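Reply to dn_fold:

You asked what the input looked like. This is it:
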Amino acid sequence: MLTLLLVPPLVTLGGLCLQSPLYGADAVAMPAPVSVFVPGPMPVPVPVVEPLGGPEVRVAAVGDVIFGRYLKGQKGQPVYCPVGAVPDPFAAVGPMLRRMDVAFANLETPLVQEPAALNIAGTTILFRGDPDRAELLSRAGFNVLSLANNHTTNLGGAGPPRTRRLLEALGLVALGGGATVDQAFDPVLLQANGQRLALLAFTLWSGDLPSVSPEGAVAHVHARDFLRLVPQAVREARRSLRADYVMVSLHWGQEYAPHPTPDQQYQARALIDAGADLVLGHHPHVLQDIERYHGGLIAYSLGNFLFDNPSLSTRRTAIVEAVLKGSGADHRVQSVTLWPVLIGTDNLPRPATGPDYRAQARLLSALAPDADIAPAPGTAGPAPVNNQGGPLAHL
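and this is what came back:
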């Protein structure tokens, strides 16, 4: 059972942002990707408030989800191309997601009506989903969606608040974007199986559009300010919200790079040392390294999930399942299981089978040597989890 808890008014990370150069019109480019995963010196860990060892919390995390994009027609007119235009695009993976306490995705699109006048001149990538697509997310079992990315504002600053209101009306949690800077940056506190889970979301990319407008905002952080501001936000969320666990969503990194940069590894580990338990990355559109560090879990890039990238590397993905439980500093993430998923040429995610499963399993074993790989569908594997999943109840 998941319950959305009200965050006390005094916890306003957005207020912190207004006093600092935390957001801006243009993101600072990350360093060029490297071909190897190189550990570097780590920050000194800070004390964290350890959970009391209550019931476990199962979290499933997936990458980028869109429902359509605009292309230019022969005369330069916008042509809308839907993605996943079937009654249930998540039908093959929904049973897995609905067994989780928390099911997370990066919603890389505004869910808004098409504007009466749409000019895509000079625009290379423009995403949009119809508002009724929100119901598909709920039906699939997703209950936490990040809006902190470089596409939520594709159709203007009203995209984040409208999408957030739409999701919240269905009982889902949206974070990282909203009507104001404060709403975009503020954490969300959930209760799952009696455990308090604080959620934060940030993007290091804002694209060609401002991250803050009179209509709305996304939680954009300049790369140069990351270590100064984001670990402190994690510490504040854990302390002020008395959170048992902290989950951080990051839209960052280089597109299509097979591994994160050393800077990213340093930054992600700094968040674990600041008190985060899960760091979930996205934006590169491919799976990247997944590592366990100081009791936490870092997924540097979750890849795509419902997406129309055609190359095989962008269609190989996974559902990352993490079980949170325990009070020891090195035992907050009890287990990590990766469920191989292949996005078909119809852009729909399905559990990988046959030769595709074997190829996926090899890839995931290389990227995440400390994780378990779930068995192929139809073979013996872990017993089903009997959690309800679905929408959150508001207090």
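The radius of gyration is 19 Å.
Hope that clears it up.
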